[in-house]
Amino acid sequence: MTEPHDPARLRELEERLSKAKKAQEPKTTRGEEHFSQANMAWRMVIELVAGLGIGFGVGFGLDGLLGTTPFLMIIFVGLGFTAGIKTMMRTANEVQKQHAAEVAAEKNAGTPANEMRDENG
Question: How many CB atoms are closer than 10 A to CB 80?
Fold first, then answer.
């Protein structure tokens, strides 16, 4: 028969309990998830506005140097808008891949609570 206070068994039990508690804890709170989504939305808006601003600045500067009043500004604003949209799409794909990886990880992760039930019968 084993001792009533076997330190190895107690340590093993504590480890299994801590794993089970960690598995039951929520990964992120609702507020953190909302905050993250708001950050991504602002990032996309800033990318678009930056593209427009840079295009406007370059076009306006070249128009001033070359004397072609609105022509180059309109072209470079269009190019800046296109670059901003392309950057936004790249960011959206990045977020989508990250979300898909998180969902796949949650599906593949086994819960220690179920494993403990299986071990104990």
Answer: 22
User: Would you kindly state where each structural domain of the chain is located, as residue ranges?
Assistant: 30-120
Reduce the DSSP state of residue 54 to 3 states and report it. helix
Answer for the pair 73, 49: CB distance below 8 angstroms, yes or no.
no
pTM listed for this prediction: 0.59
Distance of CA 111 to the CA centre of its chain: 24
> Which alpha helices (H) appear in the chain, and where do they start and end?
7-24, 30-66, 71-108, 112-120
Q: How far is CA 52 from CA 8, 15, 57, 67, 117, in A?
A: 65, 55, 9, 21, 59
Q: What is the pLDDT of residues 40-95, one digit of tens each?
A: 889 899 999 999 999 999 999 999 999 888 899 999 999 999 999 999 999 889 88
Residue with tokens 């670059």: 83
- List all residues 6 or more positions away from 63 whose beta carbon is below 8 Å from its beta carbon: 69, 70, 71, 72, 73
